[in-house]
Amino acid sequence: MTVISAIPELRKRVEKLRSLPSSPAILQPLLKLLRKPPEEIAIGEVVALVSYEKTIAAQLLRIANSPLYGRAVPTESIQGAVFALGIQRIKEILLSNCFNKLVPKNKWAVDPSVFWRHSFGCALVCGELANRIEYRDKDQAYLAGLLHDLGIVVNSLTYTEEYREVLARAAADGRPLEEQEAESLGFTHCESGGILAKTWQLPAAIVEVIEWHHAIEKGPVENPLIAIVHLGDLLCRVRGLGYGYEEWRAIDLPADAAWTTLAKHFPKLQSMDLARFTMDLDAYVIGITKLVDAIFSPPKS
């Protein structure tokens, strides 16, 4: 399958995702909420959003009262859970719940817990990297990292069996997923994710990240988020927050095109202690793993 012949068929399949009956009612309000910076989000707005679905509300209460947060007094209200978890964590839990409802269990080509460890990890790394280099909008960088692999969800839904084979081949060879996608499908999760992101009317800067985070030399040079997410993605995969398998490739971040591009516009990157930064990621790995385990653990009877 060539790229030229694959893309039109891909567009047709993604277009069908507009009207999926399994799309949760909370999805569109959540996408609207994700566009706002945390300081502009009212607690009442979040409580109302959480209250859309009882199963999601129950899960938030369960996680807020779990050992992960060590509360001395259990909270029994949605508002209490929102305060305990914080806006950022609420967004993560809501988004993972929406996507898990959107993608039936038998459609996931990659283990959903693996997918969310990578997505949450990349979001944290991107936010922290943006903060250290003094990028103007840390929250936007966090969101870009959180949504960068939207195409994996698309591919799981629209090319389920073919995509499972892609994952299996990539894992067997220790090959970067995007390379195996291009060879086997004729497109990557960047292209499929970009199509759905435009359909959902996500912010243009986020759409560009989704489309170009594995090919920054082809993306808009005026959008530094692409380079930030490219590096965040690589760092996560190096530190064990990848796609569930070890990739056999050498990574030299200071020589990477994304690094040199960012360094031209953000001088603090050049003086950043990369070794210390990557070591700090180990703490992120532990925290993210605990959160994802809490989200996917079955409720106690």
Q: Assign the structural class, choosing from mainly alpha, mainly beta, alpha/beta, alpha+beta, or little secondary structure.
A: mainly alpha
The beta-strand count equals 0
Rg calculated over all Cα atoms = 19 Å
Taken in chain order, the helices and strands follow as: HHHHHHHHHHHHHHHH
Major sheet details: none
CATH superfamily (homologous) name: Hypothetical protein af1432
CATH architecture: Orthogonal Bundle
CATH class: Mainly Alpha
- The coarse overall form would be globular
Estimated share of beta-strand residues: under 5%
Helix content: 55-70%
Structure commentary:
By secondary structure, this protein is an all-alpha fold. It has one domain: Hypothetical protein af1432, CATH 1.10.3210.10. Helices cover 64% and strands 0% of the residues. It contains 16 helices and no strands. The relative contact order is 0.12. The mean pLDDT is 85.
Task: Tell me briefly what this model is.
With 301 residues, the protein is an all-alpha fold. The chain has one domain (3-19, 95-296): Hypothetical protein af1432.
Keywords, separated by commas or semicolons:
Hypothetical protein af1432, 301 residues, 64% helix, single chain, 16 helices, mainly alpha
List the helices and strands and how they pair.
Elements: H1 3-15, H2 27-34, H3 43-50, H4 54-64, H5 78-85, H6 87-102, H7 112-132, H8 138-147, H9 150-158, H10 160-173, H11 177-185, H12 189-199, H13 204-212, H14 224-238, H15 257-265, H16 274-296
Helix pairs in contact: 1-12, 2-6, 3-5, 4-5, 7-8, 7-14, 7-16, 8-13, 8-14, 9-10, 9-12, 10-11, 12-13, 13-14, 14-15
